[in-house]
Every structure is written in C-alpha cells, then in structure tokens.
C-alpha cells in the first residue's frame, strides 16, 4: 500500500520501514508512532528478519512530533500519553533483537533527531541536517536529550539542546551522531551494504551482543567486565560459535545453518 504513512518492505532478511508522510515532513504523529510500534513488535518476533533500516520519503527524515497534534489538547494526561508512547517506541528499537540503521537524507529535528540517535547505527547524506529545536518554541527537548546524551559528548549534546541550532551532516559525523557520511546517490546502496554485512552474521550472536552492549553501559567497570565474561562464556557454548571457530581454524567459510 503505497499510500500508507509507514511502509514496510522486506527483502533478503532486511526490513525497511519507510516514513511516508512527506507533505507533513514525516512528523511523528501518534498514528505514525503506533504503526512504527506495530511493525517493530512484529519484527521482534520474526526470525527471518536480521536487520532493520528506518528511512523516509521526501525532504525530511522526520521533523519530530506533530506540533498541531501536540497543541490540539491542553491536558497534561494527553501530553504524558503522547510522549510516553514515543519513549516506548524508542525503547522498542533499543530492545529489538535486530540491529536498526537510520538512513537520513533530509532534516531530522527534535524527536526525529532523537530517532536517529536512538537507532543502533546511522548513515546520512550531505543533504541531512540535524537539530533539537524545541527550545525555539519554548520547549526543552527532554526526551531527545536522553538519546543525544548517550551518543554525543555532554557539551555537544547540550549545545544542540540549548541553542536549537542545526548541525550539518559533517558535524553530525564529527559529533558521533552518525556513523557514515556518503553521497546522496549512493546512500541507500551504502546502507544496504552495512545491513547485508550484518545479516550475513549469525542472528543469535548479534541479538546477544546488542542486548549485552546496552546493558553493560549502565554498569560500573568491574561489573561490566564480569557480565561480559559471563556472556562470552554463554556465547562460546553455542553451535554458531563452535562452527565459526572451526571454520576459521579449517580455513573455510562458516555454515551458520548447521
């Protein structure tokens, strides 16, 4: 359904979720977030999908929350429900077994910038620009601050949050908000190449590693090493680890289906 506001396209173990509301700059309305959440919940249970790409049609990756919707209601309960819905969607990306890559070819502001920061990896073209611009409208971007503060240095994150100013894709690369900066003509090809590289690895090891990575960030150093050691020991006691090591020692390509 090409008229759907969130499209899903699956091919070769890669699922592309495409924001398809270009006339609204792909704003994250409640409806858009509900559809994204539904797709994420479905993908989490789909063992045929190994990587997810989130991208968008139009000039904007996402302009963040739909401000008309935000101002539609005055009551605090409505706003709490809306922002909690967004936070739960972001957590779902973090907790998804499959890695999620943001492909950005336009502006990503406020919750749209948060979405980029919250994805496991991010690739952008020179046409991409990033901002957490809520402060320009009297609203400090508190929920985007959670993701930004976990990706950027404190000073870079706070400068973006306090000024609301845009940074270009090169600055985003320098700040650590994105992994790669590539030409618009090769953006999708580059993103797919990363996804295919990940998809070629054993899914169980990827899922275990992603969960471990985020969990250990919350621990002190000795606890993190203890947890990582336990995780590696569990990982070693799996068929895919035994097959991978045997293949390396025998100088052959591993057969992950064994």
TrEMBL record:
NCBIfam families: PRK08139.1. The keyword Lyase applies. Keywords: Fatty acid metabolism, Lipid metabolism, Lyase, Transit peptide. It comes from the Bacteria. It comes from Ostreibacterium oceani. GO terms for molecular function: hydro-lyase activity. Pfam families: ECH_1 (PF00378). Belongs to the enoyl-CoA hydratase/isomerase family. This is Enoyl-CoA hydratase domain-containing protein 3, mitochondrial. GO terms for biological process: fatty acid metabolic process. Transmembrane segments: none annotated. InterPro entries: ClpP/crotonase-like_dom_sf (IPR029045), Enoyl-CoA_hydra/iso (IPR001753), Enoyl-CoA_hydra_C (IPR014748), Mitochondrial_ECH-domain (IPR052377).
């Amino acid at each position: 359904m090409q008229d759907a506001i969130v499209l899903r396209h699956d091919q070769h173990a890669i699922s592309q979720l495409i924001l398809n509301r270009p006339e609204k700059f792909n704003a994250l309305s409640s409806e858009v977030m509900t559809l994204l959440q539904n797709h994420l919940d479905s993908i989490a249970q789909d063992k045929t999908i190994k990587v997810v790409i989130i991208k968008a049609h139009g000039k904007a990756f996402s302009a963040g929350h739909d401000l008309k919707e935000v101002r539609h209601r005055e009551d605090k309960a409505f706003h709490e429900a809306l922002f909690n819905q967004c936070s739960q969607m972001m957590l779902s990306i973090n907790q998804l077994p499959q890695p999620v890559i943001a492909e950005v070819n336009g502006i990503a502001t406020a919750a749209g910038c948060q979405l980029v920061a919250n994805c496991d990896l991010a690739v952008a073209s020179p046409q991409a620009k990033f901002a957490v611009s809520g402060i320009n409208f009297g609203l400090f971007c508190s929920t985007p601050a959670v993701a930004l503060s976990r990706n950027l240095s404190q000073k870079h994150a706070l400068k973006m949050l306090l000024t609301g100013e845009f940074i270009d894709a090169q600055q985003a690369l320098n700040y650590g908000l994105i992994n790669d900066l590539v030409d618009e003509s090769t953006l999708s090809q580059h993103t797919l190449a990363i996804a295919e590289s990940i998809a070629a690895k054993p899914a169980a090891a990827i899922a275990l590693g992603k969960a471990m990575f985020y969990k250990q960030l919350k621990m002190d150093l000795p606890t993190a090493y203890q947890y990582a050691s336990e995780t590696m020991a569990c990982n070693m006691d799996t068929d895919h680890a035994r097959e991978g090591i045997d293949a390396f020692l025998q100088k052959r390509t591993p057969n992950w289906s064994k």
